[in-house]
What we know:
It is built from 4 helices and no strands. With 76 residues, it is mostly helical.
Amino acid sequence: MDKNKFAVILPVVVGGLVNKIIEKTNVSEDIAFDKLYSSELYSALENEETKVWTYSVPKLFELYQDEVKTGRLMLP
């Protein structure tokens, strides 16, 4: 994918995921962003080659929850 297109898509995906984290865990927006940015999932998301950004927000949230519980990111 063109880097410019990816640069547009990533914030949309991240915004949706942060909203889901806020909704499901009742944390503030700042905390949700901090938690996401410090996760392995975010590292995978920002790497266009992993194609993790193509997953739905519910799937990404599931991966995020699993990482929080286990301490490891396990991609399907």
